[in-house]
Amino acid sequence: MSNIDWESSFFYKAPIIDKNSYTSGSIGITIREWFAGLAMQGILANKEGWDLSAEETAQIAVNHAEALIKELNKWKRRV
Predict the structure, then answer these.
(1) Is pLDDT above 80 for 35?
(2) DSSP 3-state of 48
(3) Which of 61, 64, 68, 74 has fewest C-beta within 10 Å?
(4) In the predicted model, what is the mean pLDDT of residues 54-67?
(5) Do 38 and 60 contact (CB within 8 A), yes or no?
(6) Cα–chain-centroid distance for residue 26?
(7) Where are the alpha helices (DSSP H) in the chain?
């Protein structure tokens, strides 16, 4: 099985409304962005996470997302 292209895989479409033009549509986020957001939420749920700067928190979250994607790709190749 080939690697999943996590960067271009859209997992969630969030509604967006442009109040200036009264139009609606949606924007998508990648699996990588979704995983990073979940990691950041976990970091900030821990009181020690508040001792980090926003930049540090974001970098750690992205690192965790990257590690998860790497492991999932290894797992997918075994299946």
Answers:
(1) yes
(2) helix
(3) 74
(4) 95
(5) no
(6) 17
(7) 31-45, 54-78
8 Å CB contact between 77 and 1: yes
Give the pair of three-digit tokens for residue 58.
């974001």
- The size of the chain, in residues, is 79
Q: Over 80: is that where the pLDDT of 8 sits?
A: no
User: Tell me, what's the pLDDT at 2?
Assistant: 46
What whole-number distance in Å separates Cα of residue 46 and Cα of residue 6? 28
Give the Cα separation of 43 and 36 in Å (integer): 10
Rounded Cα distance, 29 and 57, in Å: 19
Q: Tell me how far apart the alpha carbons of residues 35 and 18 are, in angstroms, rounded to a whole number.
A: 26
| Cα(33)–Cα(7) distance, integer angstroms | 8
